[in-house]
């Protein structure tokens, strides 16, 4: 007998969960969401991500990242229409930043990162390769994702696998039980609403907060992706850049402001982002300084921050239906997307095995 499943949320976590579930022939999957690929709302975090693959967790919490890397690597090598491409990435750190490392990235700037075993070309940077003021770093070939292509591609793969999409705004998680396209009551609901879990009745996770990210999209190409451990402009500001696949431009960032709900780009922050990028990678502007940056747009998105990390667990909705929560991924939605989706499958199978 097929499982009747409703996935609530159509960001990268919801779409990947739906796809992995739908590829198993014993599932009938419906996705219901207020926002779909192509929409641009700050609360709909997935379109605003850079996005790339850089493990952020310590080795003990790395299983979901390891699994996702295998899938993203396959897509970059074999599925160009997915909008994922290989790109060299440089990670650079300052010793003064390591005294109080970013709480969300315990693994990213480690001196001896566990994830070097994932990449054949991992190597330490030489002093001549470091930006001014940075003490050490390393590089390897990772991937960058053009979210404007990848999210619709995911949606298309879901539709190809039989997933039906319904656009709606739920007030309470219980409403999802009646939203299956089959006309049957759902026996399984997947809550992948991200920041929306703060407001969704029956969930109301008040620990969920926006981690505001402001970025600038430019036309300028870069020789590699870059991630830097700190910024002298303040603890909520960051320096990174990544070039999206298939002509998607280069994302320059950024900020990480927990609890800031302002959707309007701040002009002063934008200028600081651009100046920091020029300081560490002047070649991006071809020697022309600020005048050499060809700006496409300014953007603000809200990462779904949860102090306890991602919530991925099963909960009873009523006697006949249970919910699997898959939200609170912060900066980590793409990086752990397939690993988390497969954990959703494992939770479903473990529940069925006990019946």
UniProtKB/TrEMBL annotation:
Residues 5-346 form the FAD dependent oxidoreductase domain. GO terms for biological process: D-amino acid catabolic process. FAD binds at residue 193. InterPro entries: DAO, FAD-dep_OxRdtase. Its cofactor is FAD. D-dopa binds at residue 303. The keyword Flavoprotein applies. Pfam families: DAO. It comes from the Eukaryota. Keywords: FAD, Flavoprotein, Oxidoreductase. One of its GO terms (molecular function) is D-amino-acid oxidase activity. Belongs to the DAMOX/DASOX family. This is FAD dependent oxidoreductase.
């Amino acid at each position: 007998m097929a499982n009747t499943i409703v996935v609530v949320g159509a960001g990268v976590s919801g779409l990947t969960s739906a796809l992995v579930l739908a590829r198993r022939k014993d599932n009938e999957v419906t996705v219901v969401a207020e926002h779909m690929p192509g929409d641009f709302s700050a609360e709909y975090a997935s379109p605003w991500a850079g996005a790339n693959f850089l493990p952020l967790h310590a080795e003990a919490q790395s299983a979901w990242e390891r699994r996702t890397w295998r899938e993203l690597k396959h897509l970059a090598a074999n599925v160009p229409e997915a909008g994922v491409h290989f790109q060299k990435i440089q990670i650079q750190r300052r010793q003064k930043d390591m005294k109080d490392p970013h709480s969300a990235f315990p693994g990213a700037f480690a001196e001896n990162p566990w994830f070097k075993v994932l990449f054949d070309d991992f190597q330490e940077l030489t002093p001549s390769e470091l930006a001014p003021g940075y003490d050490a770093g390393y590089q390897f070939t990772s991937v960058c994702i053009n979210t404007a292509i990848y999210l619709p591609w995911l949606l298309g793969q879901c539709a190809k696998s039989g997933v039906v999409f319904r656009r709606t705004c739920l007030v309470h998680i219980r409403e999802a039980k009646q939203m299956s396209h089959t006309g049957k009551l759902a026996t399984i609901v997947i809550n992948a609403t991200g920041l929306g879990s703060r407001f969704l009745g029956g969930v109301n996770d008040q620990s969920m907060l926006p981690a505001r990210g402001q970025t600038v999209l430019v036309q300028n190409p870069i020789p590699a992706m870059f991630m830097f451990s700190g910024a002298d402009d303040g603890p909520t500001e960051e320096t990174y850049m990544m070039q999206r696949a298939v002509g998607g431009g280069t994302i320059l960032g950024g900020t990480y402001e927990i609890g800031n709900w302002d959707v309007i780009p701040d002009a002063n922050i934008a200028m600081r982002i651009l100046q920091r990028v020029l300081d560490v990678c002047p070649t991006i502007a071809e020697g022309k300084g600020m005048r050499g940056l060809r700006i496409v747009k300014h953007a603000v998105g809200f990462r779904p921050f949860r102090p306890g990390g991602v919530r991925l667990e099963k909960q009873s909705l009523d006697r006949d239906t249970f919910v699997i929560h898959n939200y609170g991924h912060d900066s980590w939605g793409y990086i752990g997307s397939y690993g988390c989706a497969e954990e959703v499958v494992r939770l479903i199978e473990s529940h069925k095995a006990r019946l």
